[in-house]
């Protein structure tokens, strides 16, 4: 059983930055990939970025170099550094842990970009 806890969300102005954290605990030995997804009101959940156990990264096209995913294996934590935030980035951001045939999800952290 794996538990995921997100933190770091908040309210920022356009052009600002946030750093999200996702701490994993429990039976984490079988995780091969972790990622960040987001869901805006009235829209489907979409992939933002992911990183595999061996360090390979994948980003959504809308990131356009603004976001960076990283990890700290010693702390079982994944980070998402978000720069140049736009109003369109407003969403609940969810952390995911991917296994061979299933995934686990955190409760999400709200990111609001508004002037």
Secondary-structure map with pairings?
Blueprint: E1 2-7, E2 10-12, E3 18-26, E4 33-39, E5 46-52, E6 57-59, E7 67-72, E8 77-82, E9 91-98, E10 103-105, E11 109-113
Parallel strand pairs: 2-11
Antiparallel strand pairs: 1-3, 3-8, 4-5, 4-9, 5-6, 7-8, 9-10, 9-11
How would you describe what is shown here?
- It is built from no helices and eleven strands.
- The protein is mainly β and 115 residues long.
- Strands 2, 4, 5, 6, 9, 10 and 11 form a seven-stranded mixed beta sheet that branches. A four-stranded antiparallel beta sheet has the order 1-3-8-7, with no helix packed on it.
- Strand 9 and strand 10 (103-105) form a beta hairpin.
- The radius of gyration is 13 Å and the shape is globular.
Overall mean pLDDT: 94
> What low-confidence regions span 5 or more consecutive residues with pLDDT below 50?
none
The overall strand count is 11
User: What is the string of SSEs from the N terminus onward?
Assistant: EEEEEEEEEEE
- Globally, the shape reads globular
Helical content (DSSP H or I, runs of 4+) = under 10%
User: Biggest β-sheet, characterized?
Assistant: 7 strands, mixed
Query: Helical stretch count?
Result: 0
SS strand fraction:
over 45%
Radius of gyration of CA atoms, rounded to a whole number: 13 Å
Class derived from helix and strand content = mainly beta
Distance between the termini: 40 Å
Q: What are the key terms here?
A:
115 residues; mainly beta; seven-stranded mixed sheet; four-stranded antiparallel sheet; 11 strands; globular
């Amino acid at each position: 059983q794996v538990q995921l806890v997100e933190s770091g969300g908040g309210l920022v102005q356009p052009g600002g930055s946030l750093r999200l954290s996702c701490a994993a605990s429990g039976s984490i030995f079988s995780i091969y990939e972790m990622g960040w997804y987001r869901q805006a009101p009235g829209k489907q959940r979409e992939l933002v970025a992911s990183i595999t156990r061996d360090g390979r990264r994948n980003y959504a096209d809308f990131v356009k170099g603004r976001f960076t995913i990283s990890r700290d294996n010693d702390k079982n934590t994944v980070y998402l550094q978000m720069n140049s935030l736009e109003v369109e980035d407003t969403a609940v951001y969810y952390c995911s842990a991917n296994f061979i045939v299933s995934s686990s999800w955190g409760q999400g952290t709200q990111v609001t970009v508004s002037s």
